[in-house]
């Protein structure tokens, strides 16, 4: 691929090869650290989950020599398999980061690839952060260019765009030049997959893990001078048009390197689909303001935009369903005044009291409400009606989690995951990762 020719891949390839950590703004640098810290928190919580264990068992017979750690598991696998498993662990509980304009969760595929390759190829903590920021930005840019039509067609955007971010991060850690980086992105276009229909199943986990591994494979192939079409992404028969509408090229490469989408990454206070968070906030507010007795509730109406209803107006048959259910999110917030890991466990999902309250919840569409907002109306047995509207959920760009919030989240999730990791050491290692010459080794030791 000739980088001097105008194409999306060549523009992104030039950015991926030329961007330098020291040139990033303090905002971008801190967003990168925050994203890594939050991702490690979610991975430590699910490291011992049966789903993650199943992924390890499935991959072990075809794995290569041990090259990188599995977060919180005290074992290692080859870099591609470690990236796969760690991406699954980060994303599994719907507690990871979210780029709200696209609903991409960039850390799972991108950081997993960067961490694995740095261990295999001898990178530093600074290298990891630099590659992660570049890959995260490219994943979000590509997603922005095809949103919302891409997701509406059934493509799971974290997986389909995550492979581009993982490829860019991998290309950077392999120190590929701009042409080879562009080829890695073009190859990634042919490795992109993931379906919304599969979100309530283990196939979702596989597609997120495959995005991390696929990005590594794409960069490896590009490093061996395997190329891709110049317009693999935006061409008439390229990825963007095959999976969405006419791509927005300005959103994709406009102000590249100066306007950072990755700096808009957000972090969840609840382990649930991001569009459910305003529902949870509204219910928590109602419970706190009115000292509600859930036994006196006779009806609950949740009103929101089309995306909220499309994602969350669903029956609940397992914990995966519960994390993306309007009905379950409202019920547990009102019943327990909490919405954390326990409230989305199988035990709580099948609790008769929870199921009964879920049955009182109905969802209604209000096309005038913005994405991310919700209104909850509660009718009580004495006829009173209470209402609460949340325009911007906690954890959104308007109400972001603080650094200390993310630290507390990691401490809580690390303890709950039962890995025995020292949360304080992990936190200190992340905040000092690029300044400490032994920072990556210290982080890996804390995570093992």
Structure overview:
The chain has 448 residues and is of the alpha+beta class. The protein folds into 2 domains: 8-267 and 400-447, 2-methylcitrate dehydratase PrpD (Orthogonal Bundle), CATH 1.10.4100.10; 274-390, 60s Ribosomal Protein L30, Chain: A (2-Layer Sandwich). It has helices at 8-18, 26-46, 50-59, 79-91, 107-121, 125-146, 149-152, 157-173, 178-191, 202-223, 239-243, 249-253, 277-290, 306-312, 319-323, 326-336, 346-349, 352-358, 403-417, 423-431, 439-447; strands at 68-69, 76-77, 98-99, 265-266, 297-304, 361-365, 374-380, 385-390. Helix 3 packs antiparallel against helix 4, helix 4 (79-91) packs antiparallel against helix 10 and helix 5 (107-121) runs antiparallel to helix 6. 58% of the residues are buried. Mean pLDDT is 96; it is low at 1-5. Belongs to the PrpD family. Residues 270-432 form the MmgE/PrpD C-terminal domain. Pfam families: MmgE_PrpD_C, MmgE_PrpD_N. This is 2-methylcitrate dehydratase PrpD.
Structural topology:
Elements: H1 8-18, H2 26-46, H3 50-59, E1 68-69, E2 76-77, H4 79-91, E3 98-99, H5 107-121, H6 125-146, H7 149-152, H8 157-173, H9 178-191, H10 202-223, H11 239-243, H12 249-253, E4 265-266, H13 277-290, E5 297-304, H14 306-312, H15 319-323, H16 326-336, H17 346-349, H18 352-358, E6 361-365, E7 374-380, E8 385-390, H19 403-417, H20 423-431, H21 439-447
Parallel strand pairs: 5-6
Antiparallel strand pairs: 1-2, 3-4, 5-7, 7-8
């Amino acid at each position: 691929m000739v980088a001097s020719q105008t194409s999306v891949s060549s523009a992104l390839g030039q950015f991926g090869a030329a961007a330098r950590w020291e040139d990033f703004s303090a905002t971008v640098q801190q967003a990168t650290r925050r994203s890594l810290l939050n991702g490690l928190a979610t991975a430590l919580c699910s490291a011992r989950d049966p789903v993650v264990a199943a992924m390890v068992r499935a991959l072990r017979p075809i794995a290569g020599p041990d090259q990188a750690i599995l977060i919180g598991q005290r074992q290692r696998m080859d870099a591609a398999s470690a990236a796969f498993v760690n991406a699954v662990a980060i994303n599994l509980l719907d507690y990871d980061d979210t780029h709200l304009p696209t609903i991409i969760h960039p850390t799972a595929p991108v950081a997993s690839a960067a961490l694995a390759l740095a261990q295999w190829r001898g990178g530093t903590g600074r290298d990891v952060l630099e590659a992660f920021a570049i890959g995260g930005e490219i994943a979000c840019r590509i997603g922005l260019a095809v949103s919302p039509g891409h997701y509406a067609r059934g493509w799971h955007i974290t997986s389909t765009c995550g492979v581009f971010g993982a490829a860019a991060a991998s290309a950077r850690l392999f120190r590929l030049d701009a042409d080879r980086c562009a080829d890695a992105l073009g190859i990634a276009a042919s490795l992109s997959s993931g379906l919304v229909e599969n979100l309530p199943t283990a196939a979702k986990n596989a597609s997120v893990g495959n995005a991390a591994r696929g990005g590594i494979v794409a960069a490896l192939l590009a490093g061996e001078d395997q190329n891709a079409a110049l317009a693999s992404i935006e061409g008439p028969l390229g990825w963007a048009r095959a999976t969405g509408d006419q791509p927005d090229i300005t959103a994709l490469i406009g102000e590249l390197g100066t306007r950072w989408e990755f700096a808009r990454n957000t972090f969840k206070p609840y382990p649930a689909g991001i569009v459910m968070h305003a529902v949870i906030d509204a219910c928590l507010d109602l419970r706190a303001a009115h000292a509600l007795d859930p036994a006196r509730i006779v009806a609950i109406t949740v009103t929101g935009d089309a995306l909220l209803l499309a994602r969350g107006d669903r029956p609940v048959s397992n914990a995966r369903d519960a994390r993306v259910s309007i009905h379950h999110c409202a019920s547990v917030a009102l019943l327990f005044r909490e919405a954390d890991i326990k409230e989305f466990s199988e035990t709580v999902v099948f609790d008769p009291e929870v199921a009964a309250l879920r049955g009182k919840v109905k969802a209604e569409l209000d096309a005038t409400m913005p994405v991310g907002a919700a209104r909850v109306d509660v009718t009580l047995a004495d006829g009173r009606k209470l209402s609460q509207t949340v325009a911007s959920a906690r954890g959104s760009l308007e109400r972001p989690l603080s650094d200390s919030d993310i630290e507390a989240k990691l401490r809580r999730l690390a303890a709950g995951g039962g890995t025995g990791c020292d949360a304080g050491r992990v936190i200190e290692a992340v905040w000092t990762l690029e300044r400490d010459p032994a920072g990556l080794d210290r982080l890996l030791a804390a995570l093992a």
